[in-house]
Amino acid sequence: MNSFNEFLVYGLKYVFPTEPGAIVRGVPTAHSASPIKEHISSGTDVYVWPYSKGNTRGQAIEPLYQTIPESVQEDKLFYELMAIVDTFRVGRVREINIAIVELEKRLKHA
Fold first, then answer.
1. Which DSSP string corresponds to 47-108?
2. pTM, to two decimals
3. Predicted pLDDT of residue 55
């Protein structure tokens, strides 16, 4: 694992911390979005980036940048990468391990 990957996995949650907030309408992220959601059952924990045009209700997660919820609408790979990154920020061990594998798959083809 190179330094950038190590930073994403182990350091991002300290540099860009976030805590799930109020229930809002938005765009699913972290384990509530692809590719992580295909591997786990999230139950009632749904995380979203607040976005007025979103169609999912869940706990708000502050995006790394305010335009991400709109930007991911047109780019599936970017959306998957941002959801993986948010999994590193708010996920539990099992979810993070899945995110590591999914990140490696996507970076292998970059």
1. EEEE-TT--EEEEE---SSTTHHHHGGG-HHHHHHHHHHHHHHH--HHHHHHHHHHHHHHHH
2. 0.92
3. 93
